Amino acid sequence: MEDTSIASDLGLDLKLLTSFLMSIELHYNPHHYHNKTHAADVLQMMHVIVKRSLLKCGVADAPLAKLAYVVAAMVHDVDHYGLNNDFLVNSRSALALIHNDRSPMESHHCSLTFTT
């Protein structure tokens, strides 16, 4: 059977991609909402939205775009503290100071993704 995965389409090392995604999963905290199940739900919904949009436009799947939305969906709340940005900024948390009070949680998600 031919491998038609995103990793294959882009010439990525499947073991490395799997390791990255497993590491991201391990960085999700067990909050009631911002957890790995929520990330999987967002990924599934993003996939449905993208698939329906592409079908309406008659555009074939672009492997790099597919990888981008998979990674974005999976990391969007990684290592979430369970607190909102306003609370972090107003409480002068270390995270807010590190990110200059500019969307500290989102900046943290992104930073952690690029250092994982």
TrEMBL record:
Residues 1-116 form the PDEase domain. The active site is at H34 (proton donor). It holds the Pfam family PDEase_I. Keywords: Hydrolase, Metal-binding. Zn(2+) 1 binds at H38, H76, D77. GO terms for biological process: signal transduction. One of its GO terms (molecular function) is 3',5'-cyclic-nucleotide phosphodiesterase activity. Zn(2+) 2 binds at D77. Signal peptide: none annotated. PANTHER family: CYCLIC NUCLEOTIDE PHOSPHODIESTERASE. This is PDEase domain-containing protein.
